[in-house]
Specification:
Blueprint (H helix, E strand, L loop, with lengths): L5 E12 L3 E12 L2 E2 L12 E2 L1 E13 L4 E14 L2 E15 L6 E9 L11 E4 L4 E4 L10 E11 L4 E12 L5 E10 L3 E9 L6 E12 L2 E11 L5 E10 L1
Antiparallel strand pairs: 1-2, 2-5, 3-4, 5-6, 6-7, 7-8, 8-11, 9-10, 11-12, 12-13, 13-14, 14-15, 15-16, 16-17
């Protein structure tokens, strides 16, 4: 449940093929409730409604290239819609993970949303001009996808026989904003119970995050993973995220 009656849903499934790598398919959908249309002449509403949404459907591949270095990439079809107008295109993600060999230190890097510009088209852009019914089409401005570069690191501290504290940090460089960062910590007990906290740096409203998770066995080779996260959005209140996953 995102801000301002916006909903964000995501689902994915991945499978490892021996000697080949891991393949995955995923889908994410961002949607909103219907909003009443207003105009300069009817500022209290026309009685008609519009909605907006966006989605991405991805196909991913990843594998260990060495016992310390892994690589993954995703190609995805992206679409956005506002009322009767829509824009579609393809985008690419790629990332790497390196186990440095210095104790548990690992480094990660990713570039997301690489792709060409997108542009809205639709029937509402067709408008009459003149008195003879001659038609014309309004032209929309093409826009870049929100390409983002991330670099992160993580390190584990053994806190006893059954307890591990993981500290992590990420630097983020988007093409449409200033550089941003985040710090996080996770305490895990018996690789089953987890408590988490974090803080985002140089974001307009986002700041503190808190959460927890549970991993439990359902069968000999099946595990259930449940996670929850709360995030403070300052003047925009806060958000709650829930996720459920299975490994088998």
């Amino acid at each position: 449940n995102w801000l301002l009656d916006i909903s964000l849903n995501y689902a994915a499934i991945a499978h490892y093929f021996e000697e080949v790598g891991t393949f995955a398919v995923s889908a994410s959908v961002l949607s909103m409730d219907d909003q009443e249309i207003t105009t300069m002449d009817e500022q209290d509403g026309t009685g008609d409604y519009y909605s907006a949404s966006s989605y991405a459907i991805g196909l991913s591949y990843a594998r260990m290239l060495t016992n310390r270095f892994s690589f993954g990439a995703t190609v995805k079809f992206v679409g956005e819609r506002i009322h009767n107008e829509s824009a579609e295109g393809f985008a690419f993600d790629m990332g790497t993970m390196l186990e440095t060999g210095f104790r548990s230190l690992r480094l990660g890097m990713s570039i997301t949303n690489m792709g060409p510009e997108m542009e809205f088209n639709g029937p509402d852009l067709d408008v009459p001009v003149g008195t003879d019914g001659t038609g014309a089409e309004l032209k929309t401005t093409a826009y870049d996808m929100p390409m983002t570069f991330r670099f992160g690191l993580a390190y584990d501290f053994e806190m006893g026989a059954n307890s591990v504290l993981t500290l992590s940090s990420v630097l983020k460089h988007p093409n449409d904003n200033e550089q941003q960062g985040s710090l996080g910590a996770q305490w895990g007990f018996r690789d089953q119970y987890f408590l988490r906290g974090g803080y985002k740096v140089n974001y307009d409203e986002e700041g503190l995050t808190l959460g927890g998770g549970l991993r439990t066995s359902l069968a000999s080779e099946t595990r259930l993973v449940i996670d929850y996260a709360w995030q403070d959005f300052g003047r925009l209140d806060n958000t709650h995220r829930f996720s459920v996953g299975f490994t088998f």
